């Protein structure tokens, strides 16, 4: 067994840095930089604008989902805004960012196939980087109790699977594989990335300690939806045309 102590917060004057927020910021930067490399240069101005939209949509969605799962927070409305105290749900973040993404592309009449194919593997990789922060934070996202040699012991708690680290590695590998195979096979990389995410999440959820345990079923059902949606894009989706010129501003 491995004894593990989560890193402490770092206070820089009025600013408090913790692993959770820091790695999600690194994940966002990772996704943005890689996406720019996958999108024609004439669209880069839109990616710069989208960065703030996706960040806001992801945070709002992740927090809203957490509040839905913990409705007692509504008794103290100010606590809903205290995201620095923790409480973000990854599925909510995905749907919030997806809504912001869809609205921006539609409002600016941008080619959805091209943007979706370009951003999904980098977004999954960024999500994986953010999961490293979840692992280091070690709060409310535990793995199941285990006897494997790499089980982590935190305080007086029994050894547990570092399931958030599993997810981080799984997301990053799925993103790299989707980008590579999408290019080699000439299929939708966003579909492959969704399949990779759904499969990784479905399998690794067996080693995540949900409370109540029924939440595992809901999470795995959503993972199944991602898997089926990705398969549909791979089989039926239209390959993006990267020669489409960017719309000009009037």
How many individual β-strands?
4
N-end to C-end Cα span: 63 Å
User: What strand line-up does the widest sheet have?
Assistant: 1-4
**Overall body shape:** globular
Strand fraction: under 5%
State the low-pLDDT regions, or none.
none
The computed structural class is mainly alpha
Put simply, the count of helices is: 8
Instruction: Tell me the major beta sheet.
Output: 2 strands, parallel
- The domain tally reads 1
Mean pLDDT reading: 89
In sequence order, what are the helices and strands, one letter per element?
A: EEEHHHHHEHHH
Helix percentage range: 55-70%
What Rg is obtained from the alpha carbons, in whole angstroms? Answer: 19 Å
Structural commentary:
The protein is mostly helical. It has one domain (2-6, 18-236). The chain contains eight helices and four strands; from the N terminus they run E-E-E-H-H-H-H-H-E-H-H-H. It has a two-stranded parallel sheet with strand order 1-4. Helix 2 runs antiparallel to helix 4, helix 5 (112-137) runs parallel beside helix 7 and helix 6 (163-185) runs antiparallel to helix 7 (189-204). The longest helix has 26 residues, at 44-69. It is globular.
């Amino acid at each position: 067994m491995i004894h593990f102590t989560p890193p402490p917060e770092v206070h820089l004057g009025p600013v408090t840095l913790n692993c959770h927020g820091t790695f999600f910021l690194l994940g966002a930067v990772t996704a943005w930089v890689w996406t720019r490399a996958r999108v024609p240069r004439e669209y880069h101005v839109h990616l710069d604008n989208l960065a703030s939209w996706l960040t806001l949509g992801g945070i709002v969605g992740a927090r809203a989902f957490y509040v839905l799962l913990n409705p007692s927070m509504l008794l103290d409305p100010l606590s809903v805004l205290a995201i620095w105290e923790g409480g973000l749900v990854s599925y909510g973040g995905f749907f919030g960012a997806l809504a912001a993404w869809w609205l921006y592309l539609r409002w600016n009449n941008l080619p959805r196939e091209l943007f979706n194919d370009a951003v999904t593997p980098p977004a999954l990789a960024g999500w994986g980087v953010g999961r490293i922060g979840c692992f280091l934070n070690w709060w409310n996202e535990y793995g199941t109790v285990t006897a494997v040699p790499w089980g982590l012991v935190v305080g007086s708690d029994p050894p547990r699977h570092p399931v958030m680290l599993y997810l981080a590695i799984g997301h990053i590998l799925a993103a790299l594989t989707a980008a590579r195979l999408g290019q080699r096979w000439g299929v939708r990389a966003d579909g492959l990335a969704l399949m990779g995410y759904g499969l990784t999440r479905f399998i690794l959820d067996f080693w995540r300690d949900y409370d109540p345990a029924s939440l595992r079923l809901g999470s795995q059902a959503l993972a199944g939806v991602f898997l089926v949606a990705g398969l549909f894009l791979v089989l039926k989706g239209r390959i993006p045309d990267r020669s489409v010129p960017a719309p000009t501003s009037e």
